[in-house]
Amino acid sequence: MQTITQYMSAEHQHCDSLFADAETAAASDDLAAAQASFAAFHLEMEQHLSKEETILFPAFEQATGSRGGPTSVMRMEHGQMRELFAEMKAALDAGDTATYAGLSETLLILMQQHNMKEEQMLYPMADRALREPGGIIGQMSEKK
């Protein structure tokens, strides 16, 4: 049976690949490709964040009895990412691939740190705390 760690880490890898496609297009000054790649990345990231915020985090908080701690930190970081998504989209809409590249570097560092915390701490904790992680994975698989 697949674990939450495996399922969510695979989503991270997929989003990372889409992010790299957008970075490559922007670095090549291919604005149309950068916009399309970023839109695909942004959509997948929003779906991933939503799965965490509406399914995984509430189930984890209920199982552990804690609304503070790791899930509150993750939600805060999701907010920081969303701010960067908006700034990156605005840069691309303005045709400013240089600003996009700078914001992209900031987002990359934030995502790397965020994903490491989730993959090495939060997801394994969720695998242990949730009695039926397969049920949570099923719910997340159905959500788009």
Give, in order, the helices and strands: HHHHH
Mean pLDDT: 95
How many helices does DSSP assign? 5
* Percent of sequence in beta strands: under 5%
Q: Any idea what the CATH architecture is?
A: Up-down Bundle
Number of domains: 1
CATH superfamily: nmb1532 protein domain like
Helix content: over 70%
Question: Poorly predicted ranges (pLDDT <50, ≥5 residues)?
Answer: none
- Assembly of the depicted chains: single chain
Number of strands: 0
Distance between the termini: 22 Å
In the CATH scheme, the class would be Mainly Alpha
- Morphology: elongated
| Backbone structural class | mainly alpha
Radius of gyration (Å): 16 Å
Q: What does it look like?
A:
The protein is an all-alpha fold. It has one domain (4-142): Four Helix Bundle (Hemerythrin (Met), subunit A), CATH 1.20.120.520. The chain contains five helices and no strands. The chain has helices at 4-27, 31-64, 70-93, 97-129, 133-142. Helix 1 runs antiparallel to helix 2 (31-64) and helix 2 runs parallel beside helix 4. The longest helix has 34 residues, at 31-64. The model has no long low-confidence stretch (mean pLDDT 95).
